[in-house]
Design brief:
- This protein is an all-alpha fold.
- The protein has a domain of about 240 residues.
- Helix 12 packs antiparallel against helix 13.
- The two termini are about 35 Å apart.
Length: about 425
Amino acid sequence: MALLGFVTIAVLLALILGKKMTPLGALIAVPVAAAVAGGFGFQTAGFMLRGIQSVAGVAGMFVFAILYFGIMTDAGMLDPIIDRILAAAGSDPVRIVIGTALLALLVHLDGSGAVTFLVTVPVMLPLYERLGMDKRVLACAASLAAGVNFLPWTGPMIRAAASLHLTVASIFNPLLPVQLAGLVFVFSAAWWLGRREAKRLGFRQGQGPGEIFLRELTKEQLALRRPNRFWINLALTLVLITAMIAAKLDPVAVFMVGVVLALQINYSDIRQQRERIDAHARAALLMAAILFAAGAFTGIMKESGILAAMAKSAVSVLPRAAAPHLPFVLGLLSMPLSLVFDPDSFYFGVLPVLAETGRTFGIPTVQMAQASVLGQMTTGFPVSPLTPAAFLIAGLAGIEFRDHQQFAFPLLLGASLAMTAVAVILGIFPL
C-alpha cells in the first residue's frame, strides 16, 4: 500500500510537471487508477464522494471569496492602496518587487492564498509587463510574502493545533519572532530580486523612482468604479474579516452574505449584478473544479488507507539516533514535504505519528507542530501541485507552473530554512 501511494504521487507529479495532463485531469485520473489497482473497485466512488464532501466548505469559500473580492475590485476599493504602492514604486524595479511583496503581505491578512494572488497579481502585472520585468519575479515575491505570513487563523496552524490537541496560541506565540525573521528574509529577497532585474534591464541606481506608473483604466472599468463608496466597502470588508476571526463564523457563510451586500451596495441594478457575477464566474468555477478534484484525490488516498501506510513507512525508516533531533529535521523538511502531502494528510495523518514518535524520546509535542508550520503548506503551498492556489498564481502571472516552481522553490525553501535556524537559535526547539 505504501509503495502504491508513493508511485501514485510520483506519477501525479510527473504528469503535471511534464505537462502530459492538466492538474484537473491528473488529480482525478491518477488516484482512481491507483484505487482500482489496489483492488478497491466500486468503493472508489465512495472514497471520492467523502473527499469531495470534506472540501465542500472550502470550495464554497473560494467561490464566494473570488466573487466578493472581484466585485470589490471592480468597485475600486483597492484603488487608493494600490495607487499609493505604485506611486512609491515608481518605475524602479527594486521598489516594484518590494511593493509586490508588501501588497501580498497586506492582502494575505485574511489567510487565503488564492485571494492574495487574485488581488496582487492582476494589480502588479501591467507594471511588470510595461517595464519588461520577469513575471516569475512577480509570482515569486507574492508567494514569499503569502508563504511566510502564517497566522493563527490560517489552515496549517488550525490543523496542527487540532491534530495534536494544542491551543493555537501555544504554537504561534513563541513563533512570532521567527515569523518576523522570515519577513526580513522576504523583503531582503525582494530587494535582491529587484536589484537583479534592474541590472538586467539596464536601470541605473536612482533612475526610476521619480517616474510614477499611472494605471490606465478602460471606459468599462471606470463605469464600474464606485469611488464615493470606498469607505463603506472598506468597512464591510473589515467587518467580514473580523467576523471570521473574532466570531469564528464559517468563511463560506461570511462571504456568501458579503457577496449579497457588496452587490446591493455597489450595483443595485439586477442586470449589473448578473454581469458582475458572470465576469468572475470563470475564475470561481476553475477554482471550485480543481478543489473538488483535489478533494477526490485526498478522499481516495485517505479512505483507502494508502496515506496511512505511507506515513507509517516514512516513520519506520527513521534512525533512533536521529529521533532527538526530529523537530530540527522536520523544520528542514517541512517545506519540501508540501510537494508530497496535502495539508490534511500531513497534519492529520503524518504529524500525529511523528509527534508520538518524538514524545517517546521526550520531545514536547508543541515543538513538532511548530517545526511543521515553518514550511508544510505555509512557505510550501505556493509551489505545491497539491494546492489550487499554486496553479492559480502561475496562471494569473501568465507563466508555466513548472517555470514558477523552478524559480520560486529555492527562495521559498530558503525562507523556511532561515526560520528554522532562528527557531533553533532562540531555543524554540533543539538542534
